[in-house]
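Researcher: Go.
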Amino acid sequence: QVQLVESGGGLVQAGGSLRLSCAASGSIFSINPLGWYRQVPGKQRELVARIFSGSSPTYADSVKGRFTMARDNAKNTAYLQMNSLKPGDTAVYYCKESLGSRMYWGQGTQVTVAS
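Model: Structure:
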């Protein structure tokens, strides 16, 4: 059973930083595509960053230059370093792991950026 657990969200002032973590279990973490998504009420979940095995991460235009995604295969953990946060980054952040046609999501972690 694949399980993903996000952590690291919270309240931060605009311009501040947070680092989100996504701890995975039950899968061959090192070879599966991973993604960070975010969602605000009333809107669709949107892709923030993703990484494929052996490739560099790619980012949504809205976060390029501010967010950095990384994975530590030895710890089965993915990270999202978020710098220069803006109120528009306020959302619930989710990580997703893909196994073939199946997708697994964590429970999400709330990020709130105050102006």
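Model: The mean pLDDT is 95.
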